[in-house]
Design a protein that fits this description.
Elements lengths: L9 H10 L6 H22 L25 H5 L5 E2 L2 E2 L6
Antiparallel strand pairs: 1-2
Helix pairs in contact: 1-2
Length: 94
Amino acid sequence: MSESPETADPEEVRHVAQLARVGLADDEVDQFTRQFADILEYFETLDEVPEVDREADLANVMRPDVERDSLESEEALRNAADTEDGYFKGPNVS
């Protein structure tokens, strides 16, 4: 990737679009090249923010786990759209 916003180029944008499987027209490549340069400039600005050394005051906001009986298989599968051999059956994924 580019080291500074000025070096963002259309080939990088085309490469990222290809990785994301997004087709871009030439005018979109130019638009995203400018936006990509702006984003890189924002990251450079973030690099200038000083780090803060302090321990965070963390609090556990989660409820404790409670053990309880689970549903019987037949009851759990009762409203399933499709089942097979005692299991939920979903659509094939290709």
